[in-house]
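User: I've been trying to design a sequence by hand for this structure and keep getting stuck. Would you show me what you'd pick, starting by listing the structure so we're on the same page?

Assistant: Good idea, let's start from the same input. This is the structure you sent:
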């Protein structure tokens, strides 16, 4: 399984034209703007990870798993009927486990590796890509999970959190592109509808698939990582689960 994942991520010959904004595509002023916006979240995320690893070093492996899950899913480029590509994001799981601030760091590191190793995204557009995938997506996932899990439907909460985080990433990216490249006729709105429409056909079923996959991974964790989930107050004894969760971390 590990060799298959490595091949899909590194060995595939598919061109990297997915929804990460590619290297050099954004005007300089917008590239700088998104770096400035993303930086505070990254700094707070570093503090969050430091605190987690210091207080509960047993969770380091689960942190690594969350990052690996994001890396593999977001690196898979799936052809779109619109002639481009789409991909999952994989940030919902980590946001549920550790909170959105932690994922701001893990997601940004994933984007750096993808830019350097896979030509997927870019370093000049790292701030914009991090804001959409590693910041906004996890924040939305975290709060959707918190809202729905309070009803007692934990797996539904995990599914919706992951699926909506995927969709919101693409919406935010479309907003970023529309701000940078408003249409000559119709301005921002026309440009946003154009960019969002390119991926809408494939991204909705892809988001649903990501939600289902995240639930499957969660089921696996409840069997083989139960102690770690209990430490995070995400589950209790068999037959019960906690609706409590740590804060924004």
């Amino acid at each position: 399984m590990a060799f298959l994942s490595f091949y899909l991520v590194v060995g595939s010959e598919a061109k990297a034209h997915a929804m990460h904004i590619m290297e050099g595509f954004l005007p300089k002023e917008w590239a700088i703007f998104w770096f400035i916006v993303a930086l505070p979240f990254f700094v707070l995320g570093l503090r969050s990870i430091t605190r987690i690893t210091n207080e509960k070093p047993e969770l380091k492996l689960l942190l690594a798993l969350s990052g690996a899950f994001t890396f593999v899913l977001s690196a898979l480029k799936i052809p779109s009927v619109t002639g481009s590509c789409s991909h999952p994001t994989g940030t919902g799981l980590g946001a549920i486990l550790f909170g959105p601030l932690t994922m701001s760091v893990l997601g940004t590191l994933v984007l750096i590796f993808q830019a350097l190793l896979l030509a997927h995204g870019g370093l000049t557009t790292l701030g914009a890509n991090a804001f959409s995938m590693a910041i906004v997506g996890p924040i939305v996932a975290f709060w959707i999970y918190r809202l729905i899990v309070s009803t007692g439907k934990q797996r539904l909460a995990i599914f919706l959190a992951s699926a909506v985080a995927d969709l919101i990433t693409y919406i935010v990216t479309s907003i970023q592109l529309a701000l940078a490249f408003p249409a000559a006729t119709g301005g921002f709105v026309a440009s946003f509808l154009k960019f969002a429409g390119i991926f809408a056909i494939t991204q909705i079923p892809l988001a649903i698939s990501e939600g289902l996959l995240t639930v499957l991974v969660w089921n696996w964790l409840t069997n083989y990582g139960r102690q770690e989930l209990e430490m995070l107050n995400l589950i209790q004894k068999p037959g019960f689960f906690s609706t409590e969760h740590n804060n924004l971390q």
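That's my pick for every position. To get oriented when you compare it with your attempt: The two ends are 32 Å apart (CA to CA). The first helix runs from residue 2 to 11.
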